[in-house]
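Dock copper (II) ion; give full complex structure.
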Amino acid sequence: MAADYTIRNATIIDGSGREGFPGDVSIDGDVMAAVGEGLDAAVEIDGQGMVVAPGFIDTHSHDDGAFVRYPGMEFKLAQGVTTDVSGNCGFSAAPNVPGETPPGGGALRFPGPWHDLAEYFDACLAEKPAINNLMLIGHNTVRGWVMGNEQREATAAELAQMRAHIERGMEQGACGFSTGLIYEPGRYSDTSEVTALAGVAGQYGGIYATHMRNEGDYLLESVDEALGIGRAAGCGVHISHHKASGPKNHGRCRESLALIDRAVDEGHDVTLDVYPYIAGSGPMHQYFRLDNIGLELAEAIRIASCPDRREWEGRMLSDIAEAEGLSLEDAVREAITGPRGKETICIQFTMHEDDVETNLQHPRVMVGSDGIPNLNGAPHPRLYGTFPRVLGNYVRERGVLPLTEAIRKMTSLPCERFGIPDRGYVREGLVADLVVFDPREVIDLATWDEPKREPAGIRKVFVSGALAYDDGEHTGAGTGKMLRYRAG
Ligand code: ZN
Ligand code: CU
């Protein structure tokens, strides 16, 4: 039997966490036809010195709109990412009302002609995306469509409508329900509303993924709320971009993880993700109250994109204020209240490196970029750099975690968590989503000043058996799939 591709004499790191071993990997059609001893193949690839691993899963992405806008998904593919989990932080492309704008979210809105998840998937597939997509249904999106920006409890009728949206999404293949409880309009909901809605995901064996109500002074209370919701709703809990925000909370990820470890010991099903940076990023207007502008946060902000003031992109707000003779408060106001103020995205330097390392060392923490694919401005470099940064900076240069463990966090762990049973390991018969990289060279090149640089050391990426990325070149294979959740 002959295969399409055989990668020869590589180190196979199979995703399970076990040590790498020398061998070949053969790809035939869209699956791995042999692992260990390769088959004769139409294309032979010399893998000497290279690692072959399962394609990486970006457990926390906001690429709902990018699958339609930038179907080449270069910023992810070049990192070795073959699957995104989108619909995070409570914002999802489905449900949707074509031609209308839901309140809140600003830059995390995903306008399009579809109504539900199935139609959204069709719209994505029509663009022949480079990588796979798995979706969460977002609370902010659902609440926005049903209740607008109402700052009150949901009525029974509204709750029923929201449940119906989530039910439909789960029927159509969503892996769960996401919240962004710091954001409008989700922050106007109480715990019982979120529990009722997460319960719908629970009925389908789906998960509850949460950007918690607070990631700073009330981190532990927020973890408690998330665990309680999972318990009452009967679903696994996935905590998004686990962090301890603000100088006086630095170091507290340890306490938070201890709380989670206790819950796991008691039988709860909890996982998390983290991005390897000390700055976050999101829609700026969501972080400020105009009547009481937080100066500590304003000091820590850099503008990623600002359609009203393009010349502000890539600069610290404090520098902008000084150069323009504005107070810091006025600079905040100017950034978020213009005609397109809700589209302003900021980057906030609020975390500590120790917490990033603590997270990366915890066995239940996966990797998620949280990248915002707004390519016009100067996006947070995590969009282009997350996975190679973990492998190059945290694994090779600093020894924060072993390579095999980092790869497990990027592959089998998320595939088990997010219901992707045919991917996540290098194993005969599984889908050939694979990355070939040089472990001595792999590194992120995206920086705060040059955030849109593709990484080094990623040699080849296969998506469903097709060579999608080849030594710096995007081949346009377009073999990405819309994945349907399969409860484990
Ligand atoms: Zn978030
Ligand atoms: Cu997010």
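Observed: Residues 89, 180, 211, 240-241 surround zinc ion (ligand 1) (CB under 6 Å).
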